Model the fold of this input.
Amino acid sequence: MGIWSRLVGAASSDVPADLVVVVDRESVSMGDDARSHHHELRVPAGSLVGDVVERSSPDVRAQGWSWVAVVDGTVVAVWSVDHGVDLLVPDKPLIASDPAAGVVQVHFLYLGQLDPAWLHARLAQGAPLDREALSAEHAPIARTALERERREREAATTARLLGPTCVRALEHLGAVVDLHSDVLCRFDIGGVAWQVERRDSMTVVFGRGRRSPLASLRPVGLAERWVLAALALDRRSADGLDPLPDAPVRAGAEPVQLMVAGRARAVQGSSGAVVAQLRDVRDVGPLDLVLGRDLDEVVALFGLAGPSA
Done:
């Protein structure tokens, strides 16, 4: 008798009136590990597979997240907020592998942000439930979808994350802006990709060929000034100049909550409204230069007010 034959079929006389469904799911983050996801529910004997999966579906409900439902060891469905239950087996009455016990184990595996419809199609085609292989296969599809969404957003709004003064100064440094919307500015300088991205209240800066952020700053005006200074100082170093221009530091003029390489640095008078989280201690220099200066002053300090290159 096959696995599925043991799972489904007409209830026999010794099957309990109710099934006990023992439900568990994988955690989605380290914080999620702090509590148990194990619970039980009762369903009438003869309940359909799809109904049982829906009733026991995960309490973590975010669009675009995929879960795979495993019933008594058999993969039966993909579940998501977007599509609900998408079965991989016939929707028949469900019985336990041990009918006399009347207990069914339902476990949900977290497949992350794989597109649920795509995941269902691949599993239905016979692809193994191999997270690593499926993620690698889906990665270029996800990148294409994300790029399309970004381009659509750029076309749909006239708002821009970085102001025109900042953009002109970036162009003076040699930046070629590839994409610019209200939440993202992506540009290239000398063959090196940079990206400034809005995430909630913070503005996150990527660059210098690193995959992790160089800086996370608040408000966006501070991010504009810092990225200009960081790029200008990189240029000065590449040109063999003294990295720091001959200008007084005004750090005390703008209190900021500062964290460098994961360690907090106390700054007097900080209210938390102005925040700078920096990956590298060398990037404190650009921050010190821009604190207490407005954008026009930073532009003038580095001589970035000329025509774009």
Summary: Residues 8-13, 266-271 have pLDDT under 50 and may be disordered.
